[in-house]
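It would be a great kindness if you could assist me with a short task in structural biology. The matter concerns a single protein, recorded as an amino acid sequence and a row of C-alpha cells. The record follows directly beneath this note:
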Amino acid sequence: MDNLIAPKSLKLGIFRCLKSGTNPEFPEQGTPQGGVVSPLLANIALNGIESIHKYHRSESEKVKQKITKNTPEDKIAYASVRYADDMVIFLRPQDNAEEILKQIDEFLASRGMKVSEKKTKITATINGFDFLGWNFKIKPNGKYLCVPAEDNFEKFRKKVKSIVNCSNYGAKEKAKKLSPIVRGWRNYHKYCDMSGSKFSLWFISHKAFAVFNKEKKLDRYTSKELTEKAFPSVSYSLAGHIKVKGNKSPFDGDITYWSERNSKLYDGETAKVLKKQSNTCAACGMKFTCDERVHLHHIDGNHNNWKKNNLAAVHESCHDYIHIGKSAS
C-alpha cells in the first residue's frame, strides 16, 4: 500500500477491500474473471516485479556494467512487460532463466502467491509466443512481426460468422450488429501487421457480401454498401504502441505526460488539432486528461467546413458551454 500512487480516499477503499477477507458461506468464490477489480488487485500485488530483471543499457556479453544508486533511469533497461497478472520477460543469451524464475518465486511467495507452471514457459522469439491476444515473433531475417493470436482470431471469426448466418436478422440489421464488433477488433489490433488476406478479413467480408446479396430487396451495389458498413476500415501501424513508464500513474500529477499519451487514442483531424494545440483545450487552456473526452469544435458553426483554421480541440464540457452560450445569445 505504501507504493500505491492514488488519492487517500481511494487507497483507504482498496485497503478495506483487501482486509475484508472472504465470505464463509462462499469460501471458494474469488474475484470474478473479467471484473474491473481483478486487474486492479493484480497491479497492487505485483507492483515492483518488473524490477527483478533489469540491466544497464551499456552492458553486453563482453562488457559488464552494474547498476548503482547513481545510475540514471534512462540507462536502466527493464526487460519485461506486464499487464495485470500476465507478464513476459525478455532474456539475453547471458541471462540465467532459472535464477530469474527463482527471484520471481520469492517475490510471489512473500505475497502468498506462486507461479502457474502450466502457463509458464521458456521459448525462443523465432518460434513466437502469444500475449494478450497477440502473437509476437522475430523472423529469420531479424524483422519483428506481430499479428493477432490464432485463438483470438478464431473467437472473433465465430462471433462474426454467427451473425452473418443468423436467419433472424436482415442484412441491414446484420451490418448494424457487425460494425461495432469489427471496429473494436480492428482497433485492438491496430498495432499489428493486418496486411494479409486473413487478418484484413477479405474472406469473411466476401462471405457476408454473398449472404447480403441473396436478399431480394438488395442488389449488388446496396449489398456492397452494407458490407463496407459492416466491416469498417481502421488504419494500423506495426509496433506503434508505446509502453507506460514503470513508475507512472494517472494520480502522480504529471498532467503533461498523460495528456500527451492520451492524445494517441485519437486519429484523423482530431489527432492533428491536438498536436497543433500541444494537447491543451482551446477554450479553457487546460491539458487534456483521460477524465473527459476530446471534442472537435467547428469555430464558424459550419460542420461541413473542415479547414484547419476552423477546427479546435476542446473538452466535452467546454464544448457544451460554447454551444450553450451561442444559443443564449
Remarks:
- DSSP finds ten helices and nine strands in the chain.
- Residues 86 and 119 are 10 Å apart (CA to CA).
- Residues 171-188 form the longest helix (18 residues).
- The mean pLDDT is 82.
